[in-house]
Prior knowledge:
The protein has 336 residues and is an all-alpha fold. 73% of the residues lie in helices and 1% in strands. The protein has a single domain (14-331), classed as Farnesyl Diphosphate Synthase, CATH 1.10.600. A hairpin with a 2-residue loop joins strand 1 (103-104) and strand 2 (107-108).
Amino acid sequence: xxxxxxxxxxxxxxxxxxxxxxxxxxxxxxxxxxxxxxxxxxxxxxxxxxxxxxxxxxxxxxxxxxxxxxxxxxxxxxxxxxxxxxxxxxxxxxxxxxxxxxxxxxxxxxxxxxxxxxxxxxxxxxxxxxxxxxxxxxxxxxxxxxxxxxxxxxxxxxxxxxxxxxxxxxxxxxxxxxxxxxxxxxxxxxxxxxxxxxxxxxxxxxxxxxxxxxxxxxxxxxxxxxxxxxxxxxxxxxxxxxxxxxxxxxxxxxxxxxxxxxxxxxxxxxxxxxxxxxxxxxxxxxxxxxxxxxxxxxxxxxxxxxxxxxxxxxxxxxxxxxxxxxxxxxxxxxxx
Length: 336
């Protein structure tokens, strides 16, 4: 049983961090593609289309590095990390269908190749495959955690649909949405790492809190990049949230602080029933920037990062823990 201790943080690059778990990440790449196999050709093609398009594999990284930092067996963590990636990918597919998105990870969104019906069922197929991987784990506690996590992710998606284009959506509702959509899965990944390592309940909670906080920061940063990111780097068109009527943190802050005329412009863009042009997206971005919406959002994300780092300091020193610090440092300053 590991003891809780604070130790000095060392500087490490994310490249150094991923090298610690490089063989296992390669295993996961093969595993998720293998789990996507189906005798139904369309189903398999749709799954491979999204799974082979890359992605950061952040959730597997979190789970494996937390496992390593906790002294756990990385091979035991591989199926669970693969399951986390399959669940995440399924939510991307369902999200794109709901939002009628054109692209994902630099490729045409899966539903535009295979249709909504096949794509919905492909997302369901990936979740079922994920449960098959989770079922290999003998711990009922881990099973229960993943079931609850997936249920909350569904709740977050539904809540986001319910408040679509609601400009009265405040910070509390926004945080509930990103808590469910993004943070809970990252929190589950880091907690599972602690569970596999058999660390104390206090360290498991600290690891879970770390994952939760960087998950919140990750989604806030995503919502900033949706306006100011580079389309080629993002792998999807900028301004998608505005086109889809999603009221994210930069918009919430801009509505609070923009000059009255600029605020009315931004409201009118959200209330418009027709499609928005590139010029409309540029203007909304300008309004948000001038109102300080992006910078306030970035500072809010940084506060989550700092809380995550504080929680991580409660766990024992380990090179993999320093890798987690390095990963946290890059969350807010990433470009995609």
